[in-house]
Amino acid sequence: MDMKREYYEDIQLFESNVVLVWSVAFLIFIFTLPLYVPQYQFYLLNLMLVHIILAVGLNVLVGYTGQISLGHAGFFAIGAYGTTLLMLKLNMPFLLALPLAGFIAAFFGFILGLPALRLEGPYLSIATLGFGLTIMQIIGHWNFFGGRLGLQVPPLDIGFGYILKTDVSKYYLILIITVLMVIGARNLMKTRVGRAFVAIRDSDIAAEVIGVNLTVYKTLSFAVSAFYAGIAGGLFGFVLGYFNPEPFNLILSIIFLVMVVVGGLGSILGAILGASLITVLQFSLLKNIKEMPYVGDFLVNISTRWFTVVGLENFGSIVLGLIMIGIVIFEPLGMYGVWLRMKKYWRTWPF
Amino acid sequence: MLGQLIMEGLAIGACYAIFGIAVVIIYKTSEVINFAQGEMAMLSTFVAFHILTFYQWPFWLAFIGTMVFAVLLGVFIEFFFLRPAKDPSLLGLIVITLGAEMLLMGVAGWKWGAEQKEFSLPFSFTNTHELAGGVIINDWTIAVFITAACLMFFLYLFFKFTKLGVAMRATQQNQHAARIMGIRVERVFSFAWGASSMIGALAAMFFAARSTLDPAFMMEPFLRAFAAAVLGGLMSIPGVVIGGAILGLLENGFGYFWPEWKPIVAFLVIVVVLCIRPSGLFAKHYVKKV
Q1: B96·A324 Cβ contact <8 A
Q2: How many CB atoms lie within 10 A of CB B169?
Q3: DSSP string for A277-328
Q4: Could you say which of A68, A262, A263, A330 would form a disulfide bridge with A270 (CB–CB 3.0 to 4.6 Å)?
Q5: Are A326 and A218 part of one and the same domain?
Q6: Nearest CB to A115; choose among B91, B274, B279
Q7: Binary contact (A122, B107; C-beta < 8 A)
Q8: Cβ atoms of A94 and A174 closer than 8 Å
């Protein structure tokens, strides 16, 4: 179906003119989104874009390099705190603080990548998990990081006299960064580095034999992934406007992993789809499940009968858990797998 | 003073060890790291709480009921969530158990709400005895030690001398060969999950009596117990007991001197240990074949 005849076909950004046209159409659509979508939805859209950046980065590590990370909330927190503190304490402009915070996160990713050279599977998961908990503990207890009270984010001044206040204006900033980051990841996967990552995933010993330097590429994978998480975290701070250490917990790391797995491992499109779906579910639909038509009343009835109405907010994690289990059992390729099958069906239609 | 610190460290370490044994039993047979272990135990403890407060059954009856529930829960999760997954990757298995964790946490939160509840065992903390050297030991600690010792003894006998125990070890070593030898591998898995869930529930009751009962209360102990199991190599039961003891001692010692760093010091030590010995202290490091 997708046969590549020469090298340049493999490395080009758009596979065909059809893809190019639709990509441009889609870009125009998302850039003119404020025309069709009410204002109050943009908080959710911003959150979605931030999660897309993070999921694409996590997919580089989990999907392409085959490592496990249960500590990405830690990098996310480093990005958020790094950006805000650089702006607050050192009075840096936003456009400098954000990449710098990303590089700080990348440095920590490099540090975490060092034990990953010797660990795999369950041992790696416990090491990354410990890292996430450590970061949370540090930012929760040092007054320098605002402690339990959290930090107030400074006004989002992107220079040239523009200060972004509304969700819609932030949406444009985050959207531009997201598009750049996604294209960056897509292109990275087509370079020598990306192919080295995939080789490590498929078999690290075989990769080493054919000359892939495991030390360099494994730590690089962690660093790239952490850089994405750091950028996402920096933007996340501005989406919220005010944050404390509470959201950067283990559950968040799990949710990030769920985004990647639900979307589809080892595909950029999958990461985007997964992040969008899980964000909508987790932060919108399931949070306000009582207001949903039909289902809401039914659930409240069940709750008063057998459960507690107060605990109905936990329904979200039940649904999320079922999605996680269902995806692995029925559709191991995730939403990307569904997309592939749909594509195949239409391509060979009516046969 | 030092004796007291060691005693308390060993007590909490023994709790971690009991719970770590539950993790190890599943990993030993099916090579699945069960992230839902803590929440399975949490749900069982909530069932015990429910039986005790709403039906007012005597403790030991409720205890037996809870153990039966725990076994059924373990078998249920193995049968409905893990068995249908065809040839899943390591990450796939982790995601399934993480999903089960979220699911069980949601169920417990829905049923019992998020507020903290009191859970008490017949072993009190106030009934204390003084040992030689001024070390004070309470009933709860004694119960933990006795449980851990009995558990280790019986598991040793079980894995060494019973047919099922040998079948479990065989399954761990080579699933296909075990199947050829006539072992019903699926049943072995079900049994492992049931037994592990039961042992987990046992440990969770001790934890719940020590702190309070809420849907998230097993998260921290699970991570510690998992860390203890990793420290011990995830494969050997004596390993996890020693790992648990080391972890309990470290944590209690650091908790006394630097209370705010108590939750993470154990993890830092484990990461350092893993860097030196990548498969834990007591496991043989198998060289992977390409």
Answers
A1: yes
A2: 15
A3: HHHHIIIIITTTGGGSTTHHHHHHHHHHHHS-SGGGGGHHHHHHHHHHHHHH
A4: A263
A5: no
A6: B274
A7: no
A8: no
Q: What percentage of chain A has pLDDT greater than the value 90?
A: 24
Tell me which residue in A125, A203, A332 faces B290 most closely, judged by beta carbons. A203
- Structure tokens belonging to residue A170: 């932030």
pTM of the model: 0.87
Distance (Å, whole) CA A80 – CA A37: 27
Which of A68, A126, A317 is opposite residue B105, by nearest beta carbon? Answer: A317
> How do residues A49-72 score in pLDDT, each as one tens digit?
999 999 999 999 988 988 888 889
- Answer yes or no: do A207 and A258 share one domain: yes
The ipTM, to two decimals, is 0.83
Q: What is the mean pLDDT of residues B202-219?
A: 85
pLDDT digits (tens, 9 = 90+) for B40-78: 999 999 999 888 888 888 888 888 999 999 999 999 999
Q: Where are the alpha helices (DSSP H) in B123-174?
A: 139-161, 163-173
User: Rounded to 5 degrees, what are φ and ψ at B213?
Assistant: -105, 115
Q: Rounded distance, CA B62 to CA B56, Å?
A: 9
The pLDDT of residue B285: 56
**Average pLDDT value for residue range A132-146:** 80
| Res B289: pLDDT | 52
The residue from A243, A269, A295 where one domain ends is A269
Q: Which pLDDT value is given to residue B288?
A: 55
Query: Any chain B CB within 8 A of the CB of A256?
Result: no
One domain for residues A100 and A165: yes
Which segments of chain A does DSSP mark as H helices, in order?
A: 7-11, 17-31, 42-59, 72-89, 94-116, 122-141, 167-188, 192-202, 204-209, 214-240, 250-263, 268-280, 295-306, 315-330, 334-347
Contact list in B for residue A308 (CB cut-off 8 A) is 110-113
Give A127 to chain B, closest Cα distance, Å: 6
Cα B187 vs. chain centroid, distance in angstroms? 21
CA distance A55 to chain B (A): 15
**Beta-bridge partners for A163:** A157
Q: Rounded to whole angstroms, how far apart are CA atoms A330 and A339? A: 14
User: Architecture of B2-276 per CATH?
Assistant: Orthogonal Bundle (1.10)
Domain that holds residue A140: 40-269
Within a 13 Å sphere around the CA of B289, how many CA atoms are in the beta-carbon half?
0
A161 and A264 in a single domain? The answer is yes
For residues A114 and A178, state if they share a domain: yes
CB A127 to CB B215 under 8 A? no
For residues A113 and A259, state if they share a domain: yes
Rounded average pLDDT over A320-344: 87
- Tell me what the pLDDT averaged over chain A comes to: 85
- Is residue A118's pLDDT more than 70? yes
**Percent of chain B topping pLDDT 70:** 97
